[in-house]
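Exercise: predict the fold of this chain.
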Amino acid sequence: MSKQGKILLGLVSFLPIALIIVYGIFFISMFTLAFRESVRQKGPPAFLLGNMGYLQVTMALLVISALGLLIFYLIHAINNTRLDNTDRLVWVLALLLGNVVAYPIYWFMQVWKAPATTTYQS
C-alpha cells in the first residue's frame, strides 16, 4: 500500500471516534436548547424533532464507517502474512469486541508500520 493510501486509511480509521464526539456534542446541545426553550415557554419545545436529523445523519455515518472498517480490517487481519495464528486470532477478537478503539491501533501497528511490499495469502 502506498504512503498516501496508508495516510488516508489512517484518517478514515479515526473517523468513527470523531463521529462519536460529534454525536455527543449534537446530543448535549439539543437537550440544553430544549431546556432553555422550556423555561421560556410552557409545554414541550417544537423544534426538538427538527434537530433529530443531525443525530440521525451522524449516527448513519458512524454505522457505515464503522461497519466498512470492520469488514476491511477483518479481511486484512485474516490475510496478513506478518501475523501468526495466535496474533491473527487476537486481532480478530480485538477488532470484533473493541472495534472503534481497535481500528486506529490496528492501523498503526499493522498498516502504518508495515513494509511497502506486503504479500498476502491466497
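Check your answer against the key: The mean pLDDT is 85.
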